[in-house]
UniProtKB/TrEMBL annotation:
Biased composition (Basic residues): 1-10
Name of the protein described by the UniProt record: Uncharacterized protein
Compositional bias ranges of the Polar residues kind: 12-23
Protein species of origin: Allacma fusca
Region described as Disordered: spans on this chain: 1-23
Length: 23
């Protein structure tokens, strides 16, 4: 699932990041 995550100080929906972190 695509979640709003914090990266580089801003909220970015990043499918790859979510997959990497296990969502």
């Amino acid at each position: 699932s695509v979640h709003i995550i914090f990266r580089h100080g801003q909220r970015t929906p990043d499918t790859s990041y979510v997959t990497t972190t296990g969502g």
